[in-house]
Write a structure and sequence with these properties.
By secondary structure, this protein is mainly beta. The protein is built from 1 helix and 9 strands; from the N terminus they run ββββββββαβ.
């Protein structure tokens, strides 16, 4: 038997994640990791291979996400803030230095797609 988990509802479609604070498009083929029950609304998008990560959060992020399953040693990180009306949405990412420029393009597209939630 399946039971509902207490917590804020999220909607994940083929290319968009939505919670009650924001919605955001994510890259094709990337995995969606939702925030734990009771935590502020956030989401992590993981690239195939799990080395590149993008986190989008309704609260400030202490540090960019880091992959524990990536064998790359030269990982770079970045942060952005997106203003939606009165709220700030934090965007942070990490990826191997090899391919960093392509990753930044992807992160900027994700950040530009953020809209007010439901």
């Amino acid at each position: 038997m399946l039971n509902a988990t207490a917590g804020a509802a999220v909607i994940v479609t083929r290319d968009r994640y939505t919670n009650d604070r924001f919605s955001v498009e994510y890259p094709s083929g990337w995995r969606v990791i939702t925030s734990p029950t009771g935590a502020p609304p956030s989401v992590i998008f993981a690239a195939p291979g799990n080395c590149a990560l993008i986190e989008v959060s309704s609260t400030p992020l202490a540090q960019p996400p880091a992959s524990s399953s990536c064998d790359q040693t030269d990982i770079q990180t970045t942060r952005r803030a997106v203003t939606l009306g009165a709220q700030q949405i934090a965007v942070a990412g990490s990826a191997p230095a090899d391919g960093w420029a392509e990753f930044l393009t992807t992160l900027d597209l994700v950040a530009a797609s953020i809209k007010v939630g439901t």
